[in-house]
Amino acid sequence: MATSSLISSPSLLPTKPLTIHRQNQYHNTTTFRNRIIFKVLAAKLPAGVEVPKVEPNFKAPFLGFTRTAEIWNSRACMIGIIGVFIVELIINKGILQTIGVDVGKGLDIPL
Q1: Structural domain that includes position 92
Q2: Is 18 a member of any domain?
Q3: Predicted TM-score of the model (pTM)
Q4: Residue 75 falls inside a structural domain
């Protein structure tokens, strides 16, 4: 079978052992001093594929706000505002009057 020959092939090379450390050693008032070590095995890279020289530097976004997403959101907002201005110029009414909200008469509260 193809999978068994792939697993038993000599092209699988062991890499550096992966060590997992616990962040909080005093979890549930128990000290964890044992290290768990895994050996990760990977196949050879195909011909012509090069390993990157520098590992990518990724910073997690704050609450999902990334620079690229915020740039695109601001551009969409500017296009929307300009669209509202164009609609107001063509109809010659404000956008609230267009959707049926009375404006300019103040609050209709009896005193």
Answers
A1: 67-99
A2: no
A3: 0.42
A4: yes
3-state secondary structure 8-48: CCCCCEECCCEEECCCCCCHHHCCCCCCEEECCEECCCCCC
- Whether 83 is in a domain gets the answer yes
Q: How far is residue 60's CA from residue 58's CA, in Å, rounded to a whole number?
A: 6
| Total tally of structural domains belonging to the chain | 1
104: left (phi over 0), alpha (psi -120 to 50) or beta: left
Which pLDDT tens digits describe the chain residue by residue (111 residues)? 444 444 444 444 444 444 555 555 444 445 556 777 777 776 777 788 888 888 888 888 888 888 899 999 999 999 999 999 999 999 999 888 889 888 777 776 776
